[in-house]
Amino acid sequence: LYLEEYAKAGADYITVHAEACTHLDRSLQVIRNLGKKAGVSLNPHTPESVIEYVLERLDLVLVMSVNPGFGGQAFIPAVVEKIRRIAEMIGERDIIIEVDGGVAPGTAGIVAEAGARALVAGSAVFKGGNEEAYRANIAAIRAEAEDAIRQAA
Asked: What is the pLDDT of residue 114?
């Protein structure tokens, strides 16, 4: 899994896909032993129950809201309920829920309201073709997410 190489390269967080790990608990333990924060990524079809037994080793859960492989895919709405279930499972633990895939104005607020606190936006950021547009796109995503978090509090 190249965990040591990522740590040596300076990563603060190392996230592994649950679907790619034969021994998820062992991988998370190695990450923590390297002095790094440990995360697990879940594909849209993977049930959140796969992380129940490793919650105490987690700092981050990355919920994929598209099938990994290429950018520009449409957001899969079913992951919103999955995010809510993960947030409930986490409870008061200090674990960040991150969402990657289809994050844009129109979805940022929905996932933030459900419990996501870190958003990965790709294609939505780079619309407009210039730095001013990129900044505006990021600001719109951030504002929508922050507004949803305030309203949910």
From this structure: 98
